[in-house]
Amino acid sequence: MQDNQSFSVKGVLRGLHYQLGKPQGKLIRVLSGHIWDVAVDLRRESPDFGKWAGFHLKAQSSADQLQLLWIPEGFAHGFLVLSDTAEVFYKTTNLYHPAGDRSILWSDPVLAINWPIEALDGIPLSVSPKDALGKHFLDAELPPVEVTHLV
């Protein structure tokens, strides 16, 4: 539905982003550089609700195969740039919906995401003012429970 591309320098942490009302699934690809990508399950009906998974993603090279990461609708997403620079491309299943834009604090103690900050080799972490104001997981407005109907 929509293509997005971002360029960041080492130490930039983006997220944890998600949308209410018009959730986005995301197909992530690193065009240049190396990131550590995180997805958090926000689906209350899921047995993995509130759990996170992190993945090293690098640009394709002659030595590395193409790496893609699919993050379904109902997940928060963020990443940390580990290389000097990184260009990230992602396709989404829905258009950006500013009214539904939400963010969970990257350092939330309940989620306890193990960001590889030591890999920054002393370069300070850089978080946007918007992301620094993310909500704590227990206070965040999360997607509603999906109701399925038996036919």
TrEMBL record:
The active site is at H17 (proton acceptor), Y90 (proton donor). It is an enzyme of class 5 (isomerase). GO terms for biological process: dTDP-rhamnose biosynthetic process; polysaccharide biosynthetic process. This is dTDP-4-dehydrorhamnose 3,5-epimerase. Pathway: Carbohydrate biosynthesis; dTDP-L-rhamnose biosynthesis. Its EC number is 5.1.3.13. One of its GO terms (cellular component) is cytosol. The record marks Y96 as: Participates in a stacking interaction with the thymidine ring of dTDP-4-oxo-6-deoxyglucose. Belongs to the dTDP-4-dehydrorhamnose 3,5-epimerase family. NCBIfam families: rmlC (TIGR01221). It comes from Tunturiibacter lichenicola. Catalyzes the epimerization of the C3' and C5'positions of dTDP-6-deoxy-D-xylo-4-hexulose, forming dTDP-6-deoxy-L-lyxo-4-hexulose. It catalyses: dTDP-4-dehydro-6-deoxy-alpha-D-glucose = dTDP-4-dehydro-beta-L-rhamnose. Homodimer. One of its GO terms (molecular function) is dTDP-4-dehydrorhamnose 3,5-epimerase activity. Keywords: Isomerase. It comes from the Bacteria. InterPro entries: RmlC-like (IPR000888), RmlC-like_jellyroll (IPR014710), RmlC_Cupin_sf (IPR011051).
